[in-house]
Amino acid sequence: ADVAHGAQIFSANCAACHMGGGNVVNAERTLKAEALSAYLADYNADHEAAIAHQVTNGKNAMPAFLGKLNDTDIADVAAYVEDMASKGWA
Ligand code: HEM
Predict the structure, then answer these.
(1) DSSP of 27-77
(2) Predicted ipTM?
(3) What residues line ligand 1, using a CB cutoff of 6 Å?
(4) This prediction's pTM
(5) Fewer CB within 10 Å, N side or C side of the chain?
């Protein structure tokens, strides 16, 4: 996956709600590693697949990106989120 392309996808589609790996809608559900591990279904089994699944399908107040982003875009943004989470979004 192309992490640099994922960063562009994130800026355009995710940062409005998740700037800096946070969450302006539901403050506990951040993109930090601890929150992903605690709240994101199947994250502990496969980090990028779990992020990609949530982006594709959405959840509660988060919109689904199926039909808005293609599979490559979703894989790239998932790789970017995982890379940033592994670094603590620093
Ligand atoms: C949760 C990624 C766009 C609102 C999450 C989670 C991930 C994620 C991985 C799980 C976090 C956790 O459970 O701790 C992304 C990506 C996006 C995106 C990569 C862009 C492609 C958005 C947008 C919004 C949003 C635009 C607001 C309109 C939310 C909300 C949750 C969430 C409210 C919590 C859902 C719940 O568990 O009830 N997001 N997101 N997200 N996101 Fe996004």
Answers:
(1) TT--SSHHHHHHHSTTTTT-HHHHHHHHHHH-BTTBPP-BTTB-HHHHHHH
(2) 0.99
(3) 13-14, 16-18, 23, 25-26, 29-31, 35-36, 39-40, 51, 54-55, 59-63, 65, 77, 81
(4) 0.98
(5) C
